[in-house]
Amino acid sequence: MKTIKKIIIGYVFYSSPLILILFICTAIKKPVLDVHPLSTYSNFILILILECGVWTLTALGLTISMIFSAKLRNTVLVKLSGIKERDEREVQIVGKALKSSYLTGMTILLCLLSISFLQVTITKKSPDNLAPGELQRSIQLGFHAELTDSDAIITGKEGYDIYYQYNDVPFSVPSLILLMLVWQIASYRYVSRKALKHPALRDCD
Amino acid sequence: MVNIVSQLTIKNNINELRTSKKLTQQALADAVGVTRATINAMEKGAYNPSLELAFRLARFFKVDIQSIFFVEE
Questions:
Q1: Tens digit of pLDDT for each residue in B7-66?
Q2: Backbone dihedral region of A77: left (phi > 0), alpha (psi from -120 to 50 degrees) or beta?
Q3: CA of A4 to nearest chain B CA: how many angstroms apart?
Q4: Are A75 and A13 in contact (CB under 8 A)?
Q5: How many CB pairs below 8 A link A and B?
Q6: How many CA atoms lie within 13 A of A191 on its CB side?
Q7: Chain B residue with minimum CA distance to A203
């Protein structure tokens, strides 16, 4: 059982760079997969997609097990985040670094929440339809909060064309989750390394 | 009246006691069960150990805790 767990953990972590490659490849150049015979590039992407499917299912299984098993969680995540608790001083440093990471992470989440509430619409009217004293451009600021995703209908002022519209955070949900994950690990490592180099703990905030 | 709330500056003689015993930081760290970095931090006065570690150090050097740790007035 231990060996199977080790293989699964190793597979999920060591093949994660492939997922990153797929992410970058498809972002740079979208492959055409409905043409036969497929090009070498499309074949490569197809293999990556298949690998990605297997990886996603395995990672899902592993993360669900990690929710219920504290031991598994410690084995996998302590190593990934670089937490070292060899003595009491390191335990204090871990506490300080986690506090810093938690608070900065929460700040980012609050900032993203504020951004997601914001709705900005800039409208423009053609100069021919302008009444005397009327402005060509107008700005509308709005508040938008919904529990589920829906396409909010934003209408400009009557007679105005929508020139620019901002509605919701300009990132996808997976990229936001990835950002928060990377932030958590990076901020923890930065603060703990700083505290380890300069042992005066009160200076590491 | 003495202000007991203000932060105390705690100094220690760990460096002197260690060098008198001709021990390396690593050897002392192994003897009391901490990392070498912790011994270094304590000697520099950058880290104040827990009571447990203080007692372990006192027991190792066969002295009172107050002979190792003292408050700088």
A1: 778 999 999 999 999 999 999 999 999 999 999 999 998 899 999 999 999 999 999 999
A2: alpha
A3: 34
A4: no
A5: 32
A6: 25
A7: B46
Selecting from A88, A90, A200 the residue whose C-beta is nearest the C-beta of B46 gives A200
In angstroms, the Cα distances linking B62 to A87, A181, B44 are: 22, 49, 22
Interface of A with B (CB under 8 A): 86-90, 196, 198-201
Contact A100, A201 (CB under 8 A): no
Question: Could you tell me the pTM of the whole model?
Answer: 0.70
The Cα–Cα gap between A89 and A121 comes to 53
In angstroms, the CA A130 to CA A121 distance is: 19
CA distance B62 to chain A (A): 22
Cis upstream peptide for A132 (omega within 30°)? no
E-only strand ranges, chain A: 118-124, 137-143, 161-167
pLDDT along chain A (205 residues), means of 10: 83 84 75 67 80 89 91 85 88 92 93 85 76 75 68 59 74 84 91 76 46
Q: What is the rounded distance in angstroms from the CA atom of residue A24 to the CA atom of residue A127?
A: 44
Strand partners, A164: A122
Question: Read out DSSP for chain B?
Answer: ----SSPP-EEE-HHHHHHHTT--HHHHHHHHTS-HHHHHHHHTTS-PPPHHHHHHHHHHHTS-HHHHEEE--
Tell me how close the Cα of A31 comes to any Cα of chain B, in angstroms: 53
- A196, A200, A201 ranked by CB distance to B37: nearest: A196
- Rounded Cα distance, B71 and B73, in Å: 6
pLDDT of amino acid B13: 94
Sheet of A137-143: strand order equals A137-143, A118-124, A161-167
